[in-house]
Amino acid sequence: MLELGQPLKEARCSADNVDLTVTVDNREPCSDQPKDHICEQSPVDGELDKGQAVSVTVSTGAPKIEMPDVTDKDEDDAGTVLKQDPDGGEEVEKGSEVTLTVAKAPEQAVIHERRLGAV
Q1: Are 38 and 11 in contact (CB under 8 A)?
Q2: With b meaning 16 or more CB within 10 Å and e meaning fewer, what string describes 33-46?
Q3: Please, what sign has the CA dihedral across residues 28, 32, 34, 37?
Q4: Pairing with 63, which of 89, 91, 102, 106 sits 20 to 30 Å away (CA)?
Q5: pTM
Q6: Domain boundaries, position 48
Q7: Domain assignment of residue 113, yes or no
Q8: Same domain for 48 and 15
Q9: Is 90 exposed, middle or buried (0-12, 13-18, 19+ CB in 10 A)?
Q10: pLDDT in tens, 14-64
Q11: How far is residue 57 from each of residues 4, 36, 69, 93, 100, measured CA to CA in Å?
């Protein structure tokens, strides 16, 4: 039988080796499988006769979510977010990396006032 999470190309080779065929019934986002990997199969287990088909659902990648806009917001103890990549409102795969450009707070200097000639 095939393994969940197996790349489709590899699954087809495995099936060919035991005289089975792989039929792609569906392609959909699967949060736990990368693109082009098997996320469901039918039958799940059991014995098949030679030449029978295993139906699979292939991942199109993680589900898409809308990237929140975090510019002009504070990042804990770092400063204000000036820029983000990807931009807010873009559709991205859940778990995607986000790059933030954060303003660093200016350093504060203590200035002591001294007057010349003062006692």
Answers
A1: yes
A2: beeebbbbbeeeee
A3: negative
A4: 102
A5: 0.60
A6: 8-61
A7: no
A8: yes
A9: middle
A10: 899 999 999 999 999 998 899 999 999 998 888 888 989 999 999 998 888
A11: 10, 9, 33, 19, 35
